């Protein structure tokens, strides 16, 4: 009886060990593995890989309108409807740029002839704009005969405030020529007009700086690319009035009215590119941080160009920062020297006075020195009430703002007359040029961000990819594809909108806090944590299984011995 009970108890122990081992292996290990694995949502890696090789195709519509007296009847009959001009540039092994201008030819209508008969080119530009407004990204070139008095004698091309240009053709250019020969002669001149009014290869390659490392062709292009702020969904503009000595001057400035009059129209026209917010402040006892030198011959203080680099940091410490926003800040400072350091003039590297008495710092802002000593006599009682001429100040700040947002200041080609920007401060074709550049810049930045994120997630398998990150990445990839397609179709407005969406989605996914590798344990740390928990439980089970295997082998050997 004792032997049978011992055998039955041993049997139950073996079955219990087997049951526990089976539960651990079949249920416990898969459950532990499932609950501790890193969740990684699906990402379109194949489409992201395609973005590493970027082929951008920019298309723009151009209309060439011939006025009366520029074509013979025979040339009018054979005038083609359209021609296409293509250019292709391989920036590097992974980036190819292609430019297409779809040129449509026609003769001027009666109403356009009346508009071209205005006394001045500015009036003609306005009348042509009232007749029909050209779509965003397109250009219209009106060809007028040499006998027309619309343009000054030494001007061959007039660029208006809208998307219209007026080109004068010489009689020798069209005399005795077929229409094909005439168009061949006009082709380089129209191309030169489009270099001013539409996208240019220099601007587009500069916009690819986040994706392609290249050496600018000239010092001027390098300065321009470094001066402007990079593309952003929004910008903060701060106007600051610096009064180093309130005991000398009591300053009054109508900054709100000046912003509404001079700055807001410009920003409203730039609204397709970004959102702008404006604030202002007045800082007392704010010094420049640099001691200007007194010039006895002029009886004035001089701030040389070599000292301007040391002005920014001391002043910036007093400006404060907007911690609630991550948008870039454009600072515009108006500095009124105190009575002991007036007047104060800024000189360039050639020791010549700067006409605006102002300077700007790339991707930071601008500073203007406003002298007021000539506004009161030596017998005046301090503090003197000073009303600042905001028209003079805002004219300088608007010029600096144009440079900081990316407007080129290069002179036009010889023989070109560019119309003033007017009260808005921005021509339609200038806005188009900036939209072309910003669209390409957004696409280049987004593709770099997306491909970098994909490489990071592919190399480090312990990073969790949540569904919202996968959604942002997929949205960014889709928006990039749509932006590229709209650029090829010539729809500049839609291309810019999709490019803004893709850069927002890519940046949001890349900087998501859940993509921090240190928040998740690598495999060696996981084993170091789980072994002390599982080892005490697994050792008895393993010993029981080993003992059962040993007894099974012993019984097998005894059974074989009995058979022998």
From TrEMBL:
<feature type="transmembrane region" description="Helical">
    <location>
        <begin position="527"/>
        <end position="546"/>
    </location>
</feature>
<keyword id="KW-1133">Transmembrane helix</keyword>
<keyword id="KW-0812">Transmembrane</keyword>
<keyword id="KW-0472">Membrane</keyword>
<protein>
    <submittedName>
        <fullName>Phosphatidylinositol glycan anchor biosynthesis, class S</fullName>
    </submittedName>
</protein>
<dbReference type="Pfam" id="PF10510">
    <property type="entry name" value="PIG-S"/>
</dbReference>
<dbReference type="GO" id="GO:0042765">
    <property type="term" value="C:GPI-anchor transamidase complex"/>
</dbReference>
<dbReference type="InterPro" id="IPR019540">
    <property type="entry name" value="PtdIno-glycan_biosynth_class_S"/>
</dbReference>
<feature type="transmembrane region" description="Helical">
    <location>
        <begin position="15"/>
        <end position="33"/>
    </location>
</feature>
<dbReference type="GO" id="GO:0006506">
    <property type="term" value="P:GPI anchor biosynthetic process"/>
</dbReference>
<comment type="pathway">
    <text>Glycolipid biosynthesis; glycosylphosphatidylinositol-anchor biosynthesis.</text>
</comment>
<dbReference type="GO" id="GO:0016255">
    <property type="term" value="P:attachment of GPI anchor to protein"/>
</dbReference>
<keyword id="KW-0325">Glycoprotein</keyword>
<keyword id="KW-0337">GPI-anchor biosynthesis</keyword>
<keyword id="KW-0256">Endoplasmic reticulum</keyword>
<comment type="similarity">
    <text>Belongs to the PIGS family.</text>
</comment>
